[in-house]
Design goal:
The complex is a heterodimer of chains A (346) and B (292). Chain A has 346 residues and is mainly alpha-helical. Helix content of chain A is 74%, strand content 3%. Chain A has a two-stranded antiparallel ribbon. Chain A is globular, with a radius of gyration of 21 Å. In chain B, strands 1-2 form a two-stranded antiparallel sheet. In chain B, strand 1 and strand 2 form a beta hairpin. In chain B, helix 5 runs antiparallel to helix 8. Classes of the chains: A mainly alpha (346), B mainly alpha (292).
């Protein structure tokens, strides 16, 4: 609670951005997002695109794991579904880019609904493991349904076209990817001000109590799976256009773990956490490259980057779960609280 | 229908199944005592195999000494994991502990790649090479002897659980933690012991798996099949782990031979999905009753 911000109505209490200062900073952030592509070089634009895609995907997983409390290790499969749908539509049908993304999200949603089906009977860890099964089954389809998915060689995706403009580099694609990400983030943030989002949170806190309160568990759990997969599907579609090729190796179990790690590191059950976690986890390898560059090591440093990255991912998951279970979002809030309450002690 | 081929394939599957059952036993031991679903079991296996590799190939120790060293290393690893990462999360939600083990798996893979690189390697030979025939069917000697060792080890573990004081304490803790505390059982020590024994079993299983198929940083994949085994049999059931291990081993071998190699991974996971829908707590697992 900010000092000097008394709220008189329920609506004011529920507002996403509740003070002038906050709206001010939001304006600064948007200006920065608009200015960024003109100032950054191609490499930073590439990273920005990657972060934005991961933010969408992590937000999707956060809806399912952070807000509804259903752990999924199959998130990569839904990304794959979206990516393959988009790749096939773009190459075979050549339909509109935005339509492809929505259809990709839709196909992923259907996949999510099917995978979520056992979620009423199967709970907790058993569910997490059944999503691993779904991941392997879908991977099998990606590898072996050669006529449609191109087998292990995968598919190449033509660049996206919007209003006759070919979006073939990071600079042009930035203007599609970032607004879409912002839109999806606002969608997710608003979701949790509605009945549906509240139901998700109630299910996370105690699913049996939620049912006693009149929340049909199966319907809402499926809805959560569907929404989460939709976000994953859209992220997968963006991924397909971003990397311009889709192969089965792009969506391994490790990717699911990466997203789960991002949700945990960022902070489960907060929109801000999804953003921070995705950005942080995407930039960790870059940070490692920097650190390894400083170390006095002879020979090929690239060889040790990949294992170091694997170790860092694991260590981050463990460290955050033990020492900061609420993630980066909690750290962020602590810092903010310090300034809000100043000159009083937090 | 080639009956001899079927027999040989089934025997090979049975051999792998023995190793699955052994690893699943380590998994179930941890789960029963501490209620931790250890996704890093495959990676603990891998660490054991690499310990053996380090002792026998780099330090040139004889294989039995290297094996003893690797088993000790595995036990130590189990103890360290329990003390550093599982103990601080005591009483937290099972899901966070589960995700800690996911993190552990990732750390181990990274460590192996850093120290030994990601290239596959072969363990030094220590299993007799002479071909083994059961009736008319040929069994690869490595698989045959691994199965024997696995079976002996399973029997030994069951014996220990049944008659050793610590084993009784472990079973008491598994059945009711609070009551075990009240009877003067040092429950945190039981947790440690469970992890140490599981680490030792995993290390031995890792050496056997590595002797059959070689070792690499992707060896943890074995753990995924073990996951299917324990879900199939029920997380907290020792007989379930044994039956599940044999069934999954057989199914993988049969599917790999008759449907093609790409079905080897698919079949157990399809089985898993099916089992979860029909019996959410596995074949022999106890159904959890939730109360408000």
């Amino acid at each position: 609670m900010r000092i000097g911000a008394a709220k008189a109505t329920y609506a004011a209490d529920e507002a996403l951005f509740d003070s002038a200062t906050q709206r001010c900073w939001l304006g600064v952030l948007f200006t920065a997002l608009v200015c960024f592509p003109f100032l950054a070089n191609a490499y930073w634009l590439y990273l920005a695109g990657l972060v934005a895609i991961n933010v969408v995907s992590v937000t999707g997983l956060n809806i399912l794991t952070g807000y509804t409390g259903l752990v999924s290790l199959g998130h990569a499969a839904f990304l794959g579904l979206g990516a393959y749908t988009v790749a096939i539509l773009e190459a075979r049908a050549g339909t509109n880019f935005l339509l492809n993304l929505v259809v990709g999200g839709g196909v992923a949603t259907i996949g999510g609904l099917i995978v979520g089906m056992p979620s009423l009977r199967v709970k907790g860890l058993y569910l997490a493991i059944s999503t691993i099964a779904a991941l392997f089954i879908l991977q099998f389809v990606f590898y072996n349904w050669v006529a449609v998915t191109g087998g292990s060689a995968g598919l190449s995706v033509p660049p996206a076209r919007l209003f006759g403009l070919v979006l073939d580099d990071s600079f042009k694609f930035y203007w599609v990817i970032v607004p879409l990400t912002v839109l999806l983030l606002f969608g997710a943030a608003n979701l949790f001000r509605t009945r549906i989002g509240r139901a998700f949170i109630a299910i996370r806190d105690r699913d049996i109590s939620a049912e006693v309160l009149g929340i049909p568990l199966l319907r809402y759990k499926l809805m959560s799976f569907g929404l989460s997969s939709f976000y994953a599907g859209v992220a997968g579609g963006l991924w397909a256009y971003f990397f311009r090729s889709v192969t089965p190796e792009s969506f391994p179990l490790l990717l699911s773990i990466f997203y789960l790690a991002a949700v945990i590191v960022g902070g489960m059950g907060t929109i801000l956490g999804g953003i921070l976690g995705a950005a942080f986890m995407t930039l960790v390898p870059e940070l490692l490259k920097l650190i390894v560059g400083w170390l006095p090591i002879q020979g090929d440093t690239l060889v040790i980057i990949s294992p170091l990255r694997t170790i860092a991912f694991g260590a981050l998951i463990i460290g955050f779960l033990i020492f900061e279970p609420n993630g980066l979002a909690e750290i962020w809030c602590r810092v903010r609280r310090f300034f809000h309450l100043w000159p009083f002690k937090t | 229908m080639d009956w001899l081929l079927l027999l040989e394939v089934s025997l090979a599957g049975l051999g792998t199944g023995g190793l699955y059952a052994l690893t699943a036993l380590a998994f179930v031991m941890i789960y029963k005592a501490t209620k931790v679903v250890n996704l890093a079991i495959g990676e603990m296996l891998m660490m054991g195999a690499y310990f053996f590799f380090a002792f026998s190939a780099a330090l040139q120790l004889p294989w039995w000494l290297a094996m003893a060293g690797a088993v000790m290393g595995g036990g130590l690893l189990g103890a360290v994991i329990e003390r550093l990462t599982i103990r601080p999360l005591l009483g937290k939600s099972t899901l966070s502990v589960f995700m800690v083990t996911v993190g552990l798996a990732s750390v181990f893979v990274g460590v192996v790649e850093l120290v030994w690189t990601a290239d596959p390697r072969a363990l030094p030979e220590f299993i007799p090479r002479a071909a083994v025939f059961i009736g008319p069917a040929f069994v690869a000697p490595k698989i045959f002897y691994s199965f024997l060792v696995a079976a002996a080890l399973i029997a030994a573990t069951l014996f220990v659980l049944r008659f050793w004081r610590g084993g009784v304490a472990l079973r008491a803790t598994a059945s009711d933690q609070v009551a075990a505390y009240a009877m003067g059982i040092n429950v945190p020590r039981v947790f440690s012991v469970a992890w140490i024994i599981a680490g030792m079993i995993a290390a031995l299983a890792g050496i056997l798996v590595g002797a059959i198929g070689g070792i690499s940083s992707a060896m943890g994949q074995f753990g995924l099949s073990v996951l299917v085994v324990v879900i199939f049999g029920g997380l907290d059931s020792v007989p379930g782990a044994l039956v599940g291990g044999i069934v999954v081993g057989l199914m993988e071998a049969l599917a790999g031979t008759y449907l093609g190699g790409e079905y080897k991974r698919l079949t157990p996971f399809s089985l898993l999905a099916l089992i979860l829908i029909v019996r959410p707590y596995g074949l022999f697992g106890t159904a959890e009753i939730e109360r408000l």
